[in-house]
Write a structure and sequence with these properties.
The protein has 774 residues and is α+β, with helices and mostly antiparallel strands. It contains 19 helices and 28 strands. The strands form 7 sheets. The chain has a 7-stranded mixed β-sheet. Strands 7-15-14-13-8 form a 5-stranded mixed β-sheet.
Length: 774
């Protein structure tokens, strides 16, 4: 050892096994006698369910069972809402549709058979009588009088209304020297994990324990909710998340299938498995991002923003499930960004439509608000005839104002910016991209008939949300170190990061440490992986447990060596007396001494292990500056991102290589949202982009090399000084790319106010500019 591991750029310990094809995902779980489940899904966006007859399906050879909502009991529990607000209306979703279906793809009945293909064949035999109703797919139209009503408890289709207000906004706008406003729209899109969702379950005939394997981001929460819905004691349910092939927030949700699979396994007393196909993924995975923003800034004569006023309409889809208002709340409380705006008033309306329910996807509300704010900043700079970077610089919160309390709180945490130097980050990013030289570069390109633009996004990111996370660290009598964490990562490199933390404390090789995640049977309490919380919450709980193990090891070594603990030092896996290298014990010998029957001092508990929970409600905020350069093809509207620069501040970075990988992945998703990805519905609520033929993702040739610079302002909110940063790329990427495209074409006389900026959209904008000039 000798080298401090926290901060070291070391290779990920997770990768070799996965590269050898030795991953174990839900579909790799081979349960003897397993049955396969398929779900009959509604072909209608809105309809009453008059009758469901599963009898004909049961007659098909190979079918073991078929059931509908009627078989779930007379009063089944709905999937609960975890963060309700005072204005929340009752829009519950059940495991299967009861009185009505409210989006295409909603489950109506289930078949369980000896094989998946037999189960799917049997779905066609189920007889369902529907009364088709009018659908509403536009969020603004949904909340107008006369719109089709989705839920009796919300006749205006408002699932909730959130209001956030600080200062005197009315006065700020009355006294303003200039007001700039616009409507800015972001489309509906979502995360596309390589592994679709999957659930397998079996009940132990002896203990009665139900074991569930799920491609999921929060096993402990899933255990509690599923146990509650099925009426089982929580101790009788064990949830394991094996390898998870991507999640991005879309798997931090409780879906109907999470309940249906264990219900079927319990009903039949046989193992049951369900693996989502890609069409089901597009139809039923939680969607995100769709939001309209009526946003306005009040400026004084020095071009400082004195007031911000906004109305946001969030399309929440057909139901409110576990994380119903998270996107809306985080968008509303983050729309001011890291700008010093003393007067803010934001109203957020959660509008129900006949689409798949919405829930967090990487960034959760922050990409939406950042797009509206940063797009309007560029629009304002153009209208006020001021340089866009200078306009941002004048309004950024200064270092001496930190910590900066915005006076607002989301449903997750108070919005208090804990640390950072935002002007320094902006200046560093501008220098990296040679901002001062870009104007001439752009003029030269235009003279050559080329359209190039540069886009800036300044953003912040809520991270490390509580209320707690747990971890155990154990050194067994053979000297092997094992970590059990309540986290449930899906590719973030968390295992490497936690191993680095433990390696520093116990002075062992980080590659020798076994890190285990996502098993409610291994650690009593946990929350999971979302909201960029692993470094903050899991990292701190592991640090706490490692320190306790180290303290016990030193105390035990002092007893075994007959020395004073203050005279000992731990290095390279050995505890030795200072200045006497011959008087030493290996960590293996100490762990053996800690075992029952070993050589322990009086009163010391056996085993070299500690279980610790880091409890914290104060969430640190990371931030960054993204700058993109784009070129637009004048003839086709095709956009190429030619350069991309990031300056990121996530406090203390445990592994820079892992951090930069997270930034790159997020940027790719933000770029995809800005230019390509869109979940489209027609007027009747029929999905028009339910396959990769119609839903385009960025490929390797679409994403440029990403240049990353780091600033480090340690957070005072945890002992590691870390801030989560896994979502920043997706937050900054969408806005920076959209602003770059706008900068390339707005001199033609058009205004970019919505995404995605597909080639056809950009081409039509340029054509409209030409027609206006005729």
């Amino acid at each position: 050892m000798g080298v401090k591991m926290v901060g070291a750029r070391v290779k990920r310990v997770e990768d070799p096994r996965l590269l050898r094809g030795e991953g174990a995902f839900v579909d790799d779980i081979d349960l003897p006698g397993v049955l396969h489940m398929a779900v009959l899904r509604s072909p209608h966006a809105h309809a009453r369910v008059l009758s469901v007859d599963v009898g004909p399906a049961r007659e098909l050879r190979g079918v073991v069972d078929a059931f509908s909502a009627a078989d779930l009991g007379p009063d089944p529990a709905a999937i609960p809402v975890l963060f309700p607000v005072e204005t929340s209306r009752d829009m519950p979703q059940y495991a299967l549709a009861r009185d009505a279906v409210r989006y295409v793809g909603e489950g109506v009945a289930v078949v369980v058979a000896e094989s998946r293909h037999v189960a799917e064949d049997a779905l066609e035999l189920i007889e369902v009588e529907y009364e088709v109703l009018d659908a509403v797919v536009d969020s603004a139209a949904a909340i107008k009088p006369g719109a089709p009503v989705l839920h009796a408890a919300a006749p205006d289709n408002m699932g909730a209304r959130l209001v956030y207000s600080v200062g005197d906004v009315h006065s700020a706008f009355e006294k303003a020297d200039r007001v700039v406003k616009d409507r800015l729209d972001m489309q509906r899109y979502t995360g596309i994990p390589l592994e679709t969702r999957g659930v397998a379950a079996t009940r132990d005939a002896v203990t009665g324990e139900m074991t569930i394997w799920a491609s999921n981001q929060w096993p402990h929460i899933l255990r509690g909710i599923v146990a509650g819905i099925l009426g089982m004691p929580e101790r009788s349910v064990r949830v394991i998340t094996p390898d998870v092939g991507g999640g991005f927030g879309t798997k931090a949700e409780v879906y109907p299938e999470d309940v249906l699979v264990p219900f079927a396994a319990s009903r039949l007393d046989r193992p049951v498995k369900w693996i989502e196909d890609r069409n089901e993924h597009f139809l039923t995975l939680v969607h995100s991002r769709e939001q309209t923003h009526e946003l306005e800034f009040a400026f004084d004569a020095d071009r400082r923003i004195t007031g911000l006023r906004a109305t946001l309409i969030t399309d929440i889809g057909a139901y409110q499930r576990t994380l119903a208002v998270i996107n809306s709340s985080l968008a509303g409380t983050s729309i001011a960004g890291v700008y010093d705006i003393p007067n803010v008033h934001v109203e957020v309306i959660c509008a129900a439509t006949n689409k798949s329910p919405a829930s967090p996807y990487r960034g959760a509300g922050a990409p939406e608000s950042a797009f509206a704010r940063e797009r309007l900043m560029d629009i304002a700079a153009r209208e006020l005839d001021i340089d866009r970077a200078e306009l941002r610089r004048r309004n950024l919160i200064k270092p001496e104002q930190m910590p900066y309390d915005t006076g607002m709180a989301s449903v997750e945490a108070a919005v208090i910016l804990d640390s950072g130097d935002f002007p320094a980050a902006l200046d560093a990013a501008l220098k990296m991209v040679d901002y001062d030289g870009f104007a001439e570069k752009q003029r030269t390109a235009r003279a050559d008939g080329r359209l190039i633009g540069l886009g800036i996004c300044v953003y912040h990111q809520l991270s490390g949300t509580g209320p707690f996370e747990g971890a155990s660290v154990r050194v067994d009598p053979s000297g092997q170190v094992t970590v059990n964490s309540g986290a449930a990562p899906q590719g973030q490199g968390t295992g490497t990061m936690l191993a680095q933390i433990v390696a520093d404390e116990l002075q062992v090789d980080y590659e020798s440490i076994k890190v285990v995640f996502g098993d409610t049977g291994r650690i009593g309490f946990g929350i999971g992986t979302f909201a960029s919380r692993n470094a903050v919450m899991s990292g701190t709980s592991v640090l706490m447990a490692s320190k306790k193990v180290r303290e016990k090891a030193m105390e035990l070594a002092a007893h075994m060596l007959e020395a004073n603990v203050n005279d000992l030092v731990l290095e390279e896996g050995y505890v030795q007396v200072k200045g006497s290298p011959q008087s030493r014990l290996s960590l293996t010998e100490i762990a053996a001494g800690a075992a029952p029957g070993g050589s322990r001092p009086p009163g010391m508990e056996p085993d070299l292990e500690s279980v610790q929970y880091f409890e914290n409600h104060a969430a640190p905020y990371s931030f960054g500056i993204h700058i993109a350069e784009a070129e637009v093809d004048r003839n086709t509207g095709l956009v190429e991102i030619s350069r991309y620069v990031v300056v990121n501040d996530a406090g203390v970075i445990i592994n820079p290589m892992v951090a930069e990988g997270q930034i790159a992945g997020g940027v790719a998703q933000g770029l995809g949202g800005a230019l390509m990805e869109e979940l489209v519905y027609d007027a009747e609520g029929q999905p028009q982009s339910a396959s990769f033929m119609d839903y385009i993702l960025p490929g390797s040739l679409d994403v440029p090399e990403i240049e990353v610079g780091h600033l480090h302002s340690p957070s005072p909110l945890n002992p590691l000084g870390v801030k989560g940063m896994g979502e920043g790329g997706a937050i900054g990427g969408h806005s920076a790319v959209a602003n770059a495209v706008a900068d390339a074409i707005e001199h033609l006389g058009v205004r970019v106010t919505k995404t995605p900026l597909k080639p056809s959209v950009v081409w039509e904008l340029m054509e409209s500019a030409g027609q206006q000039g005729q």
